[in-house]
Amino acid sequence: MKYLITISLLFTLLIPKQSLAYNEFWGPTGHRVVGEIAEKHLSRKAKRKINKLLKNQSLAFVSTYADEIKSDKKYNKFYSWHYINMPFEESYETAIKNPEGDLVTGINTCISVIKDENSSNSDKAFYLKLLIHLVGDLHQPMHVGLKEDKGGNDIKVQWHYKDSNLHRVWDSDMIEEFNMSYDELADNAELLNKTDIKKLQEGSVVDWVNETHELAKLVYKSAELNENLRYRYSYNNFTTVRKQLQIAGIRLVKVLNDLF
């Protein structure tokens, strides 16, 4: 037992400080739902080019890559790309920007590298994986939350009597409690016609950020500090989670079809 405790402490010390401060994102299932939905709507041309870059790995498979590389310090510079901190009264255009970058600058950089004819295929593949992930993150409301509570990470709650936080509840707790695989969730997304899809794809990345920010304001009001969230919370909010995952997939495919 003494050795286990020592190993645990060493592991904690080795984790980058920033990861301890802000370590939650759409869980793997959520990101794979986004990738799977996008894959269903790829144009033939885009699918062919993407398959070549990703060596036939699916969008769902690579959608978690940007989280997986967080364990390697050489990728620390991409950390701030996963979120944006904005006061409630601000929009992205008026808010103070993170000098280390954010979701908008991250997505735009990925697009620029992929479009650059001088970029190597390995670089294009790397930034494509990041792009797939970041468009998903953009639609998780707490990724466009407040700086003072680290996007809800410091708002401690319980999830079915277990310690959690508001960010994690929206990232993964509700999704995992629903107990469906990513492809089952994608297959059961709302049926949309071409007009619905076109409407969802309107606007810019900044417009989408501001839209998610408005939703974040509602999420902050949805729970009290230390509240025990259970079935009623899922009943009231899981439809919104599913909707955001679908919107992210529909918008991701717009970005990808335009790129390729």
UniProtKB/TrEMBL annotation:
Entry keyword Metal-binding: yes
Molecular function per GO: endonuclease activity; hydrolase activity, acting on ester bonds; metal ion binding; nucleic acid binding
GO BP terms: DNA catabolic process
Keyword Transcription: no
This protein's UniProt keywords: Disulfide bond, Endonuclease, Glycoprotein, Hydrolase, Metal-binding, Nuclease
Top-level division of the source organism's lineage: Bacteria
Xref: PANTHER family: ENDONUCLEASE 4, STRAND-SPECIFIC NUCLEASE, PUTATIVE-RELATED
Protein name in UniProt: S1/P1 nuclease
Biological source species: Neotamlana sargassicola
